[in-house]
Amino acid sequence: MKIVIAPDSFKESLTAKEVAHAIEKGWKHVFPDAEYVQVPMADGGEGTVQSLVDATNGYIVKEFVTGPLGNKVEGYFGIVGDGKTAVIEMAAASGIHYVPVAKRNPLVTTTRGTGELISRALDEGVERIILGLGGSATNDGGAGMAQALGAKLLNRVGEELPVGGGALAQLAKIDVGEMDERLQNVSFIVACDVDNPLTGNRGASAIFGPQKGATSEMVAALDSNLAHYAHVIREDLGKNVEVVPGAGAAGGLGAGVLAFLNAELKSGVDIVIEATNLKEKVKGADYVITGEGRIDGQTIYGKTPIGVAKTAKLYDIPVIGLAGCLREDCAVVYEHGIDIVFPIVPAAITLEEALRQGEQNLERTARNVAQIIKMSSRGK
């Protein structure tokens, strides 16, 4: 018997690797001689670096970079097992968790630290960079990232723009002549699971600005500034990024990577499936087990369990889902490749208890699932 275990992390409780280990431990109580293949997964958001490092026996690089407010923060990125691919979560440098609620102001926050992480990854000699968008504190369209990599964003008198989405109103010219030459030899694949354009009612400022501290007046100013930014990009770089689906991700960083890095925007879970070689690993499996902290109606929209399930169904393999909790609308996952789902919490407990007991709850539930399968196979 071959069992492939490919879960996402259980946020605030266990990493994807820890989840996979607990599930295998539970199954081994019932099927000690089975072949187990662990493939820690992610969907391009938080945890993607750790999952890909764990899945490929890579390593983490830590680096102090510029945080969203201009102070130094300890960011990080991963080098996967091939030694040629770096994985970066923009939130590791420019995330909203670095900004206290009282100081959230997307007029002044910057993505400069994300550019610095990219530069540091280039020092490792990589040939490909996977960049995860999401969780940003910024609304600068990736301007800070571009500046960190050598682009010059100039006002009408030839001075470099200050940081933040508010400064983009002053932009008159973009000069990429002195950008890091190493960028030309690296391909960029960007994990982007929203389809918002850069501007307008569904744009970066209108949809995501308020959660970053923007008032209605700020949203209007930021949206106008990003429209102007897109105009200058079109004039100076010959790229029309304003209406591209995903351009509004991470405060417009989606537009920035398209404009300055010639990046390709892809579904996050598809990137991870490719990077972990999941299609090959599930071949010949009797069961595939996946999961995440919560399985509900939103799971079908680019989340890890559905990506794993669709991969397993290429070979008609049964898929089992485990989750910290299930919502009433979770049954929709049955239409997308998951055959059965189980919650792991055994009783009415507090959230803190559930997070703390994640490992033992997973192990016990996995053991019970395996026991059901063993019982159902008797007499066959």
Automatic annotation (TrEMBL):
The keyword Kinase applies. Keywords: Kinase, Transferase. Transmembrane segments: none annotated. One of its GO terms (molecular function) is glycerate kinase activity. PANTHER family: GLYCERATE KINASE. Belongs to the glycerate kinase type-1 family. It holds the Pfam family Gly_kinase. GO terms for biological process: organic acid phosphorylation. It comes from Priestia taiwanensis. It comes from the Bacteria. This is Glycerate kinase.
